[in-house]
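Usage example:
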Amino acid sequence: MPTVKMTGHLYRYFPTLENRVITVPAGSVADVLRAVNEIAPGFTDYLLDDCGALRRHVNLCVNETIVFDRKTLADHVPVEGTLFIFQSLSGG
Amino acid sequence: MPDMILLGTRKGTVIFDRTNSTWRPRPILHAGIPVCYAACDPRDGTLWSCLDHGHWGPKLSRSRDGGGTWEEVLSLKYPEGARYIVQYLPAPDFDPAAPVGQPEYKSATVFKIWHLAFGNAEQTGRLYAGTIPGGLFVSDDGGESWELNRALWNHESRGGDLFAGDATSENHWGGTPASIDYGVFEPGIHSIVLDPQDSNRLHVAVSSAGVLESADGGLSWIGRNRGLLMDYMPNPAAEWGHDPHFMANCAGQPNHFWQQNHCGVFFSDDGAQNWKKVSAPDAGVHFGFPIGVDAQDGRTAWVVPARKDSERMAIGGGLYVARTTDGGQSWQSFRKGLPQNDAYDIVLRHGLDVAGDYVCFGSTTGNVYLSEDRGESWHCLGNHFPPIYSVRFG
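Running the assembly step on the lines above writes:
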């Protein structure tokens, strides 16, 4: 099962995600985010806009590859992979 | 006599509590998060903060115990199919001779929750939220769920019903500079004004479009911009394109409307059907952002004048408040207790509030001033707050 790692900034809003290894079923980036949202309801509202696209100041990586499909989030997160969630070095 | 002052600031919500005649701020709430508007619902005392996360999108936060604990409220969202006609700031390579292209559409997402208004006493749970990119949202359950007001969103001045298809009319709503922070140039609703005597009647002010009124609870809307003048357009009296900075009315005389507009101070005593420019440039009363209106006397209002348009700060380094009691025919300036040297404050559109004899304002320089005598003299509540976006009595 892929692992999800994220900026600690998000733990402030979703403390249930802190100090735990987050593993979810493999699938698209969108699938993985939806799975995290099952653990922490409201999580995707922080990452995605009303249209389901990645917010402007959020970056995702599958392993070491930046996710460029920010609209459909169709990139595959493999079973042994890690989805990283970062806040961009912008905005704020 | 108010007991609380709420500040929305660049770094969180600040609450002042009054004990006898002393006002003390609590430690900052929502620390580090921009709060573009904070206010108290007078019906039940619920406190609201509009969070403007740089990274995580706009959110609403609510406290039902006077600010002791806060909970996030379901994010309001545009429904699927909500679209608008995209606008762009002119780019250096703009070619005015190029043929006009077809409108470009974009699916709507909330960039900013700019203003909240609370329904009348008999409208339990009714809330209104104004947003960038120009949607008005309504809740009838205290913010648990929200619905886009489609009649306004689909107004002919915005291109018509874009849920149904392509534009059927020309879009006249321009972008607000306040949207540029979000990488767009789209309109925003920053003023939602209710009629305490008629719950079906409400007005909104839009940057940059103007004022619209609904007399049927939001089922239909009509422009109310007659008499407004904009000196940045070829036709200053055109129906659309106006830039009200903030609009308010008098609770006791709800047909008395005021707006501090980009191009002057305007007053209406007929429910915004006709506006009259009441600026007094010689007294400095012309440009600014906020305006406050007395709750009983609709001819009394306060502004914090600033130098337009290239400076946007206190005039001549001296901060003052101007008040009219005759519908803008004359203005008095009050400086007692306010800095008169080296003051470069600007007070933003929600940065001034009035409650009886109390008037309070906060500036982007982090200064907060309070008057207990209707603006005639002032004392400072603090100088080192983050940039202040909103001030509201609770």
